[in-house]
Write a structure and sequence with these properties.
Elements lengths: L2 H6 L1 H33 L4 H10 L1 H29 L4 H33 L7 H39 L5 H23 L7 H25 L9
Helix pairs in contact: 2-4, 2-8, 3-6, 4-5, 5-6, 6-7, 7-8
Length: about 240
């Protein structure tokens, strides 16, 4: 089977379009759950204010949890769909990329459990604990959410980098998008290692976030557009 026949395969094109739709869902859910809910309710850094925010917007916090659960499910399907798409390039590496994303997804699922625990602690504080003590426990659980997700992002970065490598090595996928994915994946790995390795990470947090955010947004948006419009289409030959 030639590359043209592989790319013209309808199931591959269908997988690409479904992955694009799922990615669009991820973007919407990620913005809502992470920025509109978590950052809004827990981003102050004040433990008591955080508990009061969650208690006063418990319904919104629950909606954020549901959003993360939906992301968890979508990521499983995206891992499979991207494996279908990249399998013609290199079956083994495509499978490895899928497993890396699945491992990341497991970490995200575990991290979401910590959000459920945090909500339970806010709604039913332990008997005999002062407000400050209860708030401290909630913040510890929220920190566990962040750290668990952060470690998962290491695997996600490796996943993106491997997808980028496969695009660069293929004969029918845009090399530029592949290079951007490689850069984005590398920045995820770098940021996770820096966060865990440097005791003064907070002093440079905004710089690290910018290093990760810019290439990751560009990479995943262009990748999604390509999935939706071009991936899996037949190659025009002279």
């Amino acid at each position: 089977m030639t590359d043209s026949q592989v790319v013209a395969d309808m199931p591959v094109r269908r997988a690409a379009k479904l992955a694009a739709v799922a990615y669009i869902g991820l973007f919407a859910l990620g913005i809502f759950s992470n920025f509109f809910v978590l950052e809004r309710l827990t981003g102050s850094g004040d433990a008591i204010a955080t508990v009061e925010n969650i208690a006063g917007s418990a319904g919104l916090f629950r909606a954020g949890i549901v959003g993360f659960l939906a992301i968890f499910v979508l990521d499983v399907f995206i891992a499979w769909l991207l494996h279908v798409l990249f399998r013609p390039v290199n079956g083994g590496l495509s499978l490895l990329a899928a497993w890396l994303r699945l491992v990341y997804t497991v970490f995200l699922g575990v991290a979401t459990v910590f959000l459920v625990v945090a909500l339970r602690l806010v709604e039913t504080p332990a008997a005999g604990f002062s407000l400050e003590q209860s708030a401290s426990k909630v913040m510890s659980v929220l920190d566990a959410f962040t750290i668990t997700w952060l470690i998962g992002l290491l695997m996600f970065g490796l996943h993106l980098a491997l997808l980028g490598y496969l695009m660069v090595k293929s004969q029918y996928m845009p090399r530029l998008i592949g290079i951007i994915l490689l850069v984005a994946g590398t920045t995820y790995v770098f940021d996770t290692v820096a966060n865990l390795a440097f005791s003064n990470y907070e002093a440079y947090e905004n710089v690290f976030l910018a290093i990760v955010a810019v290439p990751s947004i560009v990479a995943e948006l262009t990748f999604t557009i390509w999935l939706l419009t071009r991936a899996g289409r037949p190659i025009k030959t002279a």
